[in-house]
Amino acid sequence: MSNNLVTPIGNVVYAWIKNEEIIHKDGKDIPTGKYSITVSFSEEETQKLNEVINKTWADFLEKNKQDKEFNLTKFVVPTRTLNEKVCFVFRKNVSIISKETNQPVKLFVPIFDSGNKNCTKSVAGIGRESQVRISYTLVPFYMNANNYGVSLRLQAIQLVKLVPITSNGSRYGFDEVADGYVAQNMDELEIPY
Q1: pLDDT tens-digit map of 113-128
Q2: Which domains are seen in the chain, by residue range?
């Protein structure tokens, strides 16, 4: 039995589950040290997830009211808004430091198919509009007055429908052009997400 929560089926917006998430800021690529998957849900399921998160935060405040003198009603939840729709961001560390060896240990995101068969090694990446369920834990935190909230910790992914990541131009809206340049003997480039 697990303490993990499981989302309903949602649609993938972004997935960095095989390589470390990279954010683009001020013209630079910055590694985050995390795997991440951003998922959108129906309006009803989004509301239910928000209710669970809000209860987790309220319980955290109640439990810690003697230890910390704060009354924070607004808190941070990792979300992004896309086309006026709230999408949730689930993250997991790429590595941890081993207590025994004091060396980094690389982690991975377990992936299961709809029949619960482990398919982590066979899935090269998860493309936009894939349908997934996420196993996660909610971790409330308070670092200081400017850094607090509820983290959505990614544990595993169940693939309901896989939309593979393509390395051709169709994902950018390009069609083939007759009598145009065609690359010869090029190795397929690895897509980092």
Answers
A1: 999 999 999 998 999 9
A2: 5-167 (2.40.50.140)
